[in-house]
Amino acid sequence: SKKKASSSNLTPKGSSSYPATPETPYATYPERGHSPARKESPPRPAPSLAPPQQQPQAAPAKPVKLGPRETLDALASRFHTEFVPQCVSFINSPPADQKTKDFDYKKLSETILAQIILKLDAVETEGDEGLRMKRRELVKETQAMLNSLDRVGKTGGGK
């Protein structure tokens, strides 16, 4: 027994080709723009059960655990190339607007504390006196820069 569509809007009025039969492979729905003269699309490849092959891309590398010497070198490099120029610029020509000055001062000093000082504190020198001295010198240099920022940033209405 054939099931009939329960809704009259599924079968166009006057259409006797619903459902499609082998003699009429396509049902005619002129109101939707379909026609029996439609060209068949090329066959699609069968879906593969194998996982898709990924192209070799620059996958996010897992962070490599640096040794204490490499960590100190990386922190020193970042401090000197990224933060020192920003500090010198702020110290030599602080913003005239007090709100901007306060914001820039706090942002710069807090970022240096979080990105340099706290990371320096986490470096284990493993009893190596040379590494300990290197860390100590970098902490002193960073603190001296923060003191210079404080002198400029805390003047004229800062907290």
**What structural class results from the helix and strand content?**
mainly alpha
From the alpha carbons, calculate the radius of gyration and give it in angstroms: 36 Å
Summarize the main sheet.
none
- Average of per-residue pLDDT values: 78
Question: What is the string of SSEs from the N terminus onward?
Answer: HHH
What is the number of strand segments? 0
Q: Roughly how many Å apart are the termini?
A: 86 Å
Shape: flat
Helix content bin: 40-55%
Q: Would you summarize the structure shown here?
A:
The chain is an all-alpha fold and about 160 residues long. The chain has three helices and no strands.
Describe the 3D structure:
The chain is flat. The protein is mainly alpha-helical and 159 residues long. The protein starts with 67 loop residues before the first helix and ends in a 6-residue tail after the last helix. The chain contains three helices and no strands. Helices cover 47% and strands 0% of the residues. The protein has helices spanning 68-92, 98-122, 129-153.
